[in-house]
Design goal:
OB fold (Dihydrolipoamide Acetyltransferase, E2P); DNA-binding protein; signal; five-stranded mixed β-barrel; 119 residues
Length: 119
């Protein structure tokens, strides 16, 4: 009985820490959850602001038809690894929490390790 309980506890633990891999069209169903988003960068736009640059990546469809936006700003964009030219048309995988901005899902890239180009 103790072994069964231990196995059950371990299985529940793994499922509690697992993260979903989703597509852009599924993002609206995962608001508030940490996910892996996969898709192709269909459009991007760099905003140069006094508080720091911000790069918006539209996944699978260009703006305004896109289902989700990946927001790259702060220290991540200042390192210069992720640029419009480097990401345009690339298939990517992003880890982050889905939130809503102006009625659309978005994921803010918290650090550069959370974005992988999978081409």
């Amino acid at each position: 009985m103790k072994n069964l309980f231990l196995v059950l506890l371990v299985c529940i633990g793994f499922s509690a820490f697992s993260q979903e891999t989703i597509t852009a069209s599924q993002a609206k169903d995962f608001v508030g959850k940490e996910v892996f988003l996969t898709g192709k960068v269909a459009g991007s736009r760099l905003f140069q602001r006094p508080t720091g640059d911000m790069l918006l990546l539209n996944i699978d469809k260009p703006h305004p038809s896109n289902d989700v936006t990946v927001v790259v700003e702060g220290e991540v964009i200042s390192k210069g690894k992720f640029t419009e030219a480097a990401l345009q048309g690339k298939s990517i995988k992003v880890k982050g929490i889905v939130s809503i901005y102006k009625e659309k899902p978005q994921i803010k890239l918290e650090n550069e390790a959370n974005l992988t180009i999978i081409e």
